[in-house]
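Pilot study result, target chain (468 residues):
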Amino acid sequence: MNALYRAFQKLIKEELRKEMPERWRPAFHVAPPVGWLNDPNGLCQKDGIYHAFFQMAPFEPQGGLKFWGHSVSQDLIHWEFKGVPMLPDQPYDCHGAYSGSALVEGDQMSLFYTGNVKNLGDYNYVTNGRESNTILAVSKDGEKIESKKLLMTNADYPDDMTCHVRDPKVWKEGGRYYMVQGARTKEDKGVVLVFSSEDKYHWNYIHRLESEEKFGFMWECPDLYELDGQTILCISPQGVEQDGYWYANKYQTVTSVIHGDFRTDGVPEGFRELDGGFDFYAPQTFLTEDGRRILIGWMGMADVEDEYTNRTTEDGWQNVLTLARELSLKDGIVCQNPVRELSSWWNEEVSFEGQYTGNTDICYELNLKNTEKKWEVLIAGGLKLSWSPEEYVFRMEFTDGKLGCGRGLRAREIKACKDIRIVVDASCVEVFMNGGKDVFSTRFYPEKDQYTVKASGEDLTGSYRYRV
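Predicted structure:
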């Protein structure tokens, strides 16, 4: 353990000793005790324990030098923060331990990530001046990094790439290791680079996944996985223009089915936005020991400070990860639903017909049926969720500017509305519609006496679940 590592850990422990207010702190979403959180990293399950690493700037809630924070869970609902094990403490990662993934083999956890280096000088940091280094860190329990090894530098990526190559996602298949990385070409086109290896230390570039037409200038946080017999690509592109209700956020996250072999001739065909809410980016998936494909995303958005903010910065922390979501494929659409473990969190339930009105706890779940006719849900007096068969449009709209901290309207044309599941956790709202085909996530900031909910609609039935 070098002197820099010890010094960083001392500073971090001092920061973690601060007592932060509990308002708006979620019960079953991963959140930092202090500082800033963004991309989920290294999601995995080892010996029955779930691990969620995440980008973290422990000294400043507005962001800063990136470390990896670490939380663990036995059920994807109760999370325990375990510390900040991954530090930018080497020459090849000194300006940030950026995003990456985990591979569990035996008693070892291999953590692949991007080491960010910005050289001093007159650089644009796109085509010059930046090092994007692919690094392997080894841990047995996620709490201590035992070693690091530099695997690839910019010289190992294709010649037509800019300095922006990052976010390695690694898996093993058919006796070989594969890696995808997000990239930006010198023509400002987003692509995904595919690498293979026999030993996970020596990597060869073998293919790139790209759309025929340009779809953003950078594809971040790529993920490639099999779902119900199909190969799915998930990316978070930057530079996609809004198209009606679609792609309204600063940055997006989309999925696509890969046609062909991802190793040789595969191409993504058709993109669909994964979450239409205000706060969703950079998701990552992993396979559980019981065979489920689980997704967790960053419940936040970068570079939107002029549009909307988060009031938790007043309390010294910012951002959370989404609820863990089980994935399935229906009609070619990647569907997301809360993990089944959430059902055991609630221990009381109230059924209703036509309408429901109540003062609520800070955590609850609202399930609506018979939603083919017009309906509306008003949360905390200022977040309106609605759908009308006359317009065929679902709306998530803040009518209270303070509640949404600048968030306004997100919407999507939805031809049929068959079921609604709304999960609220202190300052998080996640809406799952039509079996998880349409999902909307947002943060909101009610005052203590503002936690109310009203649901109404013709022939509407439903249930309100909570915990006592």
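One observation from the pilot: The longest helix spans residues 3-16. A full batch analysis is planned for the follow-on phase.
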